[in-house]
Specification:
heterodimer, A: alpha/beta, Rossmann fold, 2 domains, 6-stranded mixed sheet, 43% helix, 19% strand, globular, B: alpha/beta, FAD/NAD(P)-binding domain, 4 domains, 5-stranded parallel sheet, 22 strands
Chain lengths: 392, 588
């Protein structure tokens, strides 16, 4: 049934429908609405789950690691500094092969204290062994969260579902919230492949010598490589049951496109609009929606972008000293392609600054005018007056 | 659509996971500090002159083990129901709980336990040693003499008590008014002492001649005759004042008193006797004024008692001292006229004596008081010379609560005769200390006494413990007194102190019935649960709960650390709510 819901609410509804059993969370803007709603569901019995109040995000993840080790379905949500604080335990959760699902609402890191959109928080956790899925709108957030549980449990790896601060987390739009019975047909109860069991005492995650550590890491890498394939199968199930197609990456008008945008999150929606306008103006613009960032769907990108002329990546993040992180990943993925396109990396909309259809069109024209790549690091919309004050 | 019930091409998981026991990994080898159960001394028990094991008493009561709680008191004090009423409870002033909200109502709990014991037919189990064939004569049956008899009898001595009055109890029987201590309560606690085999001879005063004959019939003597003679006022007309102690005695003996009600009385003095006299007078319908030469804060009287007196309508006049009493003749109609008391005004000088302000006459300023009766309560002293230890004896031992001399036989002096603080609990303490001293003397000789007494000190204070003397576990406690900042207060919630029903002042001055009620069993148990049980293990098991190595073992209800696996992290010690553990460095 469609109802108008906030992006945060779309996530909490999905968590309810996934019949999560343990939630541990610490509040942080702009994530708070998600767990606020869930705490109420736990309190009023709508959701038969244990809500563990903790004193930090580090403890929240630690609590989930314990809960997931005992074989139950778990959830948490965080943002920005909270995610950074969890960092150590993100590695632990993936190394322990626990199918934990977490929502991260992308928010800028301080200082320059800022609560608005910036993707650097989640992207700087890219090497922790978590699957990362980025959402475009509220429906996408709900659907992706449900898929995340199937996906996590299929490979025993944790999944981070990522939403843009405010543009998604706090925006109301119509969302189709499925009924429990339908969700049950898509998402069966968790059947853990291992769990703490007093009848079979065992030690988990203990000391490992150099003789075995590397094989364990290879086992994680192997599982990660299975993710795109598993995702596609799960997405097919999802489409059959719910009628929507949440593809791991979506190409829009790419076949004949001369310039193809690659971006993630709510910027995808903005790009859709800009591409439509450019097409109406006779420009051959295309769009690739990046939904899955980890594992990076290299095969998909090579297939779609091989032989194309120019790609414009819009990054709402920056790896200082390198470039936008999506651009960086895409360059690495396409380096060994037969005929890689030129990749233009644009950094825009950090710390909640607007990226409008006009911004996207500006990027299109800049890309079109450039004969060849001048720099891998083009910053959009910098205020020249401000820059003058510190240029000396 | 694929079948979502089947796993997606699952690859084998390769995880750090083992069903082999980790017992082979003796993590104890990592340790450089070790936790130990190190029971310490609670501040209340060190503040109690009788050295009662209060932390343990409240722990037992909190589990409704009332009989065991009573037995724990009786280890150290034969008078819980008495002391639960009349003791000045230094324990509560020392109580760590007082720094969090209010001190535990220790005295009320003692009263509850004492009353529960005397109202039951079951006899508490008191640890006693078999008879040792020695006989002791005890002069005086006040709290010191009866205390000595009680502890000596438990150590195996045959005790014979000589009391001048017609009933035993000394100050408890004759000096303390019944609204504070009813006769029945005292009688029942004295009966318990008799049941230990103590012989009580009443109307049997000892004199100096008799004392000389004791050496032929007894192996030792304890003298606890108290301060029987009131100190006389020394000024013009002072002989007109009535002896306050004698007055209290007469009231308790139900002697006919030729006092008329609706008259006024001045009570000279600032001690507990002055308060008792004034409160007795107001119950007889007389309007009393306490006249004290210093200020309220300097009074040796116990302040809550004074407050009760003031509530009842007693007047306090401070910084005044009588210098003359005149008058009290008869008027032409034959009616008695009041006395005229001249009072010298006093002022506080800069100097202090033993912490009390020194007062000096304020020039020659005086005031006059018209009053019907005058009572003197400025203190008391020993009644006879032989009540005090002779000086100059080569073999004498001055202990904190008694004095021991070696004549033909050892003679111990205790109670008010030797105590710095004149209180019931201190008197009991002197009887106990004398018993320990005499027992040690007969077993190990004169030179062993000091060490034996020091060996059963509670904390490093003057109180001695019979349980420790009898080699109870309590002997192993660390003398260190637990302070409030060593209590892990996270484990305790604020809770209000139990209160008892107190008769309103208007009602209580109509009667000599007790002013306060005893706590109900429910209220007493709840109040005992407020106790931190400072320094002692109450089996709360937080050490065991928090131990990451599961190294806290419980065997026969006692806890010990499995050192094969204890890494010395110290969590158990940090979590112990009551500082019953310690970390000790390993000798590497």
């Amino acid at each position: 049934m469609k109802q108008v819901a906030e992006g945060s609410q779309a996530v909490s509804e999905a968590v309810r429908l996934a019949k999560v059993q343990v939630i541990a969370a610490y509040p942080i803007t702009p994530q708070t609405h998600i767990v606020e709603e869930l705490s109420e569901y736990c309190a009023n019995g709508t959701l038969n789950a244990r809500f563990i109040c903790v004193e930090s995000e580090h403890s929240a993840m630690a609590a989930l690691i314990g809960a997931a080790s005992s074989g139950v379905r778990t959830f948490t949500a965080t943002s920005s500094h909270g995610l950074a604080y969890m960092h150590e335990l993100l590695h632990w959760a993936s190394g322990a092969r626990l199918p934990i699902v977490m929502t991260n609402v992308n928010r800028a890191l301080g200082p320059g204290w800022n609560i608005w959109l910036d993707q650097t928080d989640s992207l700087s956790q890219r090497d922790t062994g978590w699957i990362q899925l980025y959402c475009e709108d509220s429906q996408d957030a709900l659907d992706t969260t449900l898929i995340a549980y199937r996906l996590a449990e299929s490979v025993n790896l944790p999944v981070m579902v990522v939403l843009d601060a405010f543009f998604l987390s706090h925006t109301y739009e119509p969302v189709d919230i499925p009924d429990q019975e339908t969700v049950n047909t898509f998402l069966p109860p968790l059947s853990p492949r291992f769990q703490i069991d007093t009848a079979n005492p065992a030690a988990f995650n203990q000391f490992v010598s150099p003789q075995a550590y590397m094989e364990m890491r290879y086992n994680i890498q192997t599982a990660m490589q299975r993710v795109p394939g598993n995702y596609n199968e799960i997405a097919q199930d999802f489409k059959a049951i719910f009628g929507r197609d949440p593809r791991l990456a979506e190409d829009v008008h790419c076949d004949d496109a001369e310039i193809i945008f690659v971006t993630a999150g709510t910027t995808v929606s903005t790009c859709r609009q800009a591409v439509d306008r450019l097409r109406q103006a006779g420009e051959k613009a295309g769009l690739l929606k990046l939904k899955m960032f980890r594992p990076f769907p290299v095969d998909f990108f090579r297939q779609v972008l091989n032989g194309k002329q120019k790609v414009a990546v819009v990054d709402r993040n920056c790896s200082f000293g390198a470039s936008g992180i999506f651009a960086q990943e895409l360059r690495a993925a396409l380096y060994n392609a037969e005929a890689p396109p030129e990749i233009f990396g644009y950094i825009a909309g950090l710390g909640g600054r607007d990226v409008t259809p006009e911004t996207i069109e500006d990027i299109y024209w800049q890309t079109k005018r450039a004969d060849r790549l001048q720099t891998e690091n083009i910053w959009i919309g910098l205020d020249q007056e401000t820059l003058k004050t510190w240029r000396n | 659509m694929t079948d979502n019930k089947t796993p997606h091409h699952k690859i084998p998981l390769f995880l750090p996971h083992s069903s082999t026991s980790t017992a082979a990994n003796k993590t104890g080898s990592w340790r450089y500090v070790r936790p130990v159960y190190d029971e310490k001394t609670s501040p209340c028990s060190a503040a109690c002159p009788a050295g009662e094991d209060i932390a343990r008493i409240e722990m037992l009561l909190s589990r409704t083990l009332i009989q065991e709680a009573c037995e724990t008191i009786l280890e150290e004090n034969p008078f819980p129901a008495v002391c639960g009423r009349v003791c000045f409870h230094n324990c509560e002033g020392a109580c760590n709980r007082g720094q969090m909200d209010d001190p535990v109502a220790i005295q009320q709990l003692e009263r509850f336990i004492g009353d529960a014991a005397i109202s039951k037919t079951e006899i508490p189990q008191i640890k006693t040693l078999p008879g040792n064939g020695k006989k002791v004569a005890i002069a005086g049956s006040g709290p010191a003499g009866l205390g000595a008899a009680y502890f000596l009898a438990r150590l195996g001595f045959a005790c014979e008590v000589f009391e001048a009055a017609s009933e035993p109890g000394g100050i408890l029987r004759w000096g303390i008014p019944t609204y504070r201590l009813p006769r029945g309560v005292l009688q029942k606690e004295i009966r318990r002492i008799k049941e230990l085999g103590v012989t009580l001879n009443c109307s049997a005063p000892v004199n100096a001649e008799m004392l000389k004959t004791f050496k032929n019939r007894y192996d030792a003597v304890f003298i606890g005759c108290g301060h029987g003679r009131a100190i006389d006022l020394q000024f013009e007309g002072a002989q007109k004042a009535i002896n306050g102690l004698q007055f209290l005695h007469n009231i308790r003996a139900r002697h006919e008193m030729s006092l008329n009600s609706k008259r006024t009385a001045a009570v000279i003095g600032g001690g507990n006797t002055a308060i008792d006299v004034a409160r007795t007078l107001i119950r007889l319908g007389i309007d009393p004024i306490i006249v004290y030469r210093r200020r309220r804060q300097d009074m040796p009287a116990f302040d809550p008692e004074l407050q009760m007196a003031l509530d009842e309508g007693v007047t306090l006049k401070e910084l005044l001292t009588p210098i003359a009493i005149k008058g009290a003749g008869r008027d032409p109609a034959g009616r008695q006229t009041p006395y005229l008391v001249t009072l010298q005004k006093m002022k506080v000088s800069a100097m202090q004596i033993e912490g009390r302000a020194r007062v000096i006459p304020d020039g020659d300023q005086t005031e006059t008081l018209e009053i019907d009766y005058i009572f003197s309560a400025i203190g008391a002293e020993p009644e006879a010379v032989w009540h005090q230890a002779p000086t100059g004896k080569s073999s004498s031992l001055n202990l904190s609560h008694c004095k021991l001399i070696k004549d033909d036989i050892p003679i111990a002096y205790g109670g008010d005769l030797t105590n710095r603080v004149k209180s019931v609990a201190d008197a009991v303490a002197s009887g106990k200390q004398a018993a320990i001293a005499l027992d040690t003397y007969f077993k190990y000789g004169w030179d062993a006494v000091n060490k034996a007494v020091a060996g059963c000190q509670v904390g490093s204070g003057p109180a001695v413990s019979m349980a420790m003397y009898l080699d109870d576990d309590r002997k192993n406690r660390n003398p260190q007194i637990v302070s409030f900042n060593e209590i892990n207060t996270h484990y305790f919630k604020s809770a209000s102190r139990a209160s008892v029903t107190v008769l309103p002042p208007g009602d209580r001055i109509q009667t000599f019935l007790p002013v306060e009620s005893t706590l109900t069993p429910e209220a007493a148990v709840e109040e005992s649960q407020r106790c931190f049980n400072c320094g002692i293990c109450n089996a709360c098991d937080y050490c065991r709960l928090y131990c990451p190595e599961m190294s806290v073992m419980v065997e026969d209800e006692r806890r010990h650390i499995n050192l094969d696996y204890c890494k010395g992290c110290g969590l158990c010690v940090a979590e112990c709510p009551r500082n019953a553990m310690a970390l000790k460095e390993e000798n590497i």
